[in-house]
Design a protein that fits this description.
The protein is mainly α. The protein folds into two domains: 63 residues; 92 residues, Arc Repressor Mutant, subunit A (Orthogonal Bundle). Helices cover 73% and strands 0% of the residues. The longest helix is centred in the N-terminal third of the chain and has 21 residues. It is flat, with a radius of gyration of 17 Å. The model has no long low-confidence stretch (mean pLDDT 78).
């Protein structure tokens, strides 16, 4: 039962990250919230019912557009980033991809998301790094390479920045 709970929690956290990175919806649940809800479930049937209800609410929010970007350019930029987390991604590169002026894109992105483009990319990469640290046997060096960082010190500096 505990293994199934762990898998369920990991599945939902991955879903949360993917939805957020695609700007489809910004799920309001956190890892702590999910864990607290799952920990008291004592049967597979109850876990299945809870999971179905949770997924229905997530997809209902997506259908309603809750938390979604109103600008197609921002949503496309987020998709672009999520598909290229393993490489270096620059604001200029994404602006060029969208056929937008980099300065305009930067202001638009900040207005829509509340984050600068670099903050957004860093957060996504740090979330992915946390997932890889928790869910794999990869070394920090391997994870750095997978996320497009040349050395571990950059990953460590950025992770401190995210925690502040």
């Amino acid at each position: 039962m505990e293994t199934v709970k762990d898998w369920t929690l990991k599945l939902l956290l991955d879903l949360k990250l993917k939805l957020h990175s695609l700007q489809s919806v910004r799920p309001a649940y956190s890892a702590d919230t999910l864990h607290k809800e799952i920990v008291d479930i004592d049967s597979l049937l109850a876990l299945r019912e809870w999971l179905n209800n949770h997924l229905e609410s997530v997809f209902a929010a997506k259908e309603a557009g809750v938390g979604a970007s109103k600008r197609v350019e921002v949503a496309e930029a987020c998709r672009y980033v999520s598909l290229r987390l393993g490489s270096r991604i620059s604001l200029d590169e994404v602006a060029d991809h969208l056929h937008l002026n980099a300065s305009y894109f930067s202001r638009l992105f900040k207005k829509e998301t509340g984050l600068t483009f670099i903050e957004y990319v860093t957060r996504l990469k740090m979330e992915r790094a946390k997932e890889l640290l928790d869910g794999t046997q990869c070394t920090v060096g391997d994870i750095c390479e997978q996320l497009g960082y040349d050395n571990q010190s950059i990953l460590l500096r950025r992770s401190r920045f995210i925690q502040e």
